[in-house]
Amino acid sequence: MPTKRRIERHQLPYYLKVFNRITDKPMGYIGNVSMDGLMLISQLPMLVGGRFEMRLKIPGQDGQLHFIDFCATCQWCREDVNPGHFDSGFSLVAPPGEYADLIDALRFYFSFRPLAASA
Questions:
Q1: What pLDDT is recorded for position 4?
Q2: How far apart, in Å, are the Cα atoms of 8 and each of 19, 25, 79?
Q3: Span 88-104, pLDDT tens digits
Q4: CB atoms closer than 10 angstroms to residue 46
Q5: Torsion, Cα of 105, 73, 20, 57 (10° steps)
Q6: Strand pairing partners for 53?
Q7: Nearest to 18 by CA among 54, 46, 45
Q8: pLDDT class for 24, splitting at 50, 70, 90?
Q9: What pTM was computed for the model?
Q10: Angle ∠(99,102,104) on CA atoms, nearest 5
């Protein structure tokens, strides 16, 4: 298993909660994301090699929650620097278009964009 990342990841200063799509129970929070994967921060260790049905609940401009459902396979799991928490790396299985839209929106929201020079 390669130890170096091949994909650019974006750290999130605020965490998005991830739910189990089948049970609707919280699994943890997203620590970072890429187009092909994510890191989950959870209170329980994740089964490496396990495939999970996940859901993000994103508030929309219309005031309604919008769901992004996807499958992901756990690639690794280790204890977090914070006691009682675990970090797990997931690769997404055929991520839906809504996931790519979310990544683009997060990248735009959290990126540094210099102000346009005034005349």
A1: 59
A2: 24, 29, 22
A3: 999 999 988 888 888 88
A4: 21
A5: 0
A6: 71
A7: 54
A8: very high
A9: 0.76
A10: 115
Tokens of 81: 């620097």
Q: Is residue 68 classed exposed, middle or buried when 0-12, 13-18 and 19+ CB atoms within 10 A define those classes?
A: buried
Q: What is the 3-state secondary structure (H, E, C) of the chain?
A: CCCCCCCCCEECCCCCEEEECCCCCEEEEEEEECCCEEEEEECCCCCCCCEEEEEEEEECCCCCEEEEEEEEEEEEEEECCCCCCEEEEEEEECCCHHHHHHHHHHHHHHCCCCCCCCC
User: CA 24, CA 86: separation in Å to the nearest integer?
Assistant: 20
Kindly state the tokens that stand for 76: 């690794």
| C-alpha torsion angle, residues 105, 20, 75, 83 (rounded to 10) | 90
